[in-house]
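#struct-queue
[09:14] JT: dropping the first one here, sequence first, then the structure tokens:
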Amino acid sequence: MNVVDILSKSLSSEGVDYTYEYIVTRNSLKLLDEGVVKEVQSYGIVIERRDNSLGKVFNIERDCVKNISPQRHKVQALAKMLSSNLVSPINFIEVIGEYIDDYISDYDRLFKETSIS
């Protein structure tokens, strides 16, 4: 997994600093297409929230989805939307579930485009 982009946001409440990071990752994914194993680039997102008080981290929440789409721009736009809305790792899957369902067809389109060439 390689880091492609990191979006960070911070906020403070009642003496606790919360730092959110939305990390776009690039992964290698092997898929079976008509009996042939093909390796494709795939992009995912890691969300991490670190809770810090008096200079010490006392809690870390993290969640990720490694393979959302082979289209980098879609995953980066999704990470930006998550960052803009300060989505927590706890709610991450609920928020992006429909996007993942929609973007999964990008892999099928990728195979169709490469088999035509």
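[09:21] JT: and here's the second one, same format:
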Amino acid sequence: MRSQGQAGGGLVTVEVNGHLKLTKCRIDKSLIQSGDTEMIEELICAATNQALDKIRQTQQLEMKQLTGGVNIPGLSDIFGGMGLGG
């Protein structure tokens, strides 16, 4: 499972996997050449958070499908450390 996040109109693109690990980060050369370190840092954070939100939503939907929509108390605590819970 993988998810992408973008920020700055695509100037920064990141990819995270189902274990909530950052696997790719692409920064457009024009952004690097601008020398605006603060903006680069903010865009990396924004893109990463977007990708993480997407993967968490996907995981929550998959968990609902696996459990038939039944809320099982404590299940998210068990799988939360693995990035599988809600």
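[09:30] RK: nice, looked through the second one.
[09:31] RK: The first helix runs from residue 29 to 34.
[09:31] JT: good to know. The radius of gyration is 16 Å.
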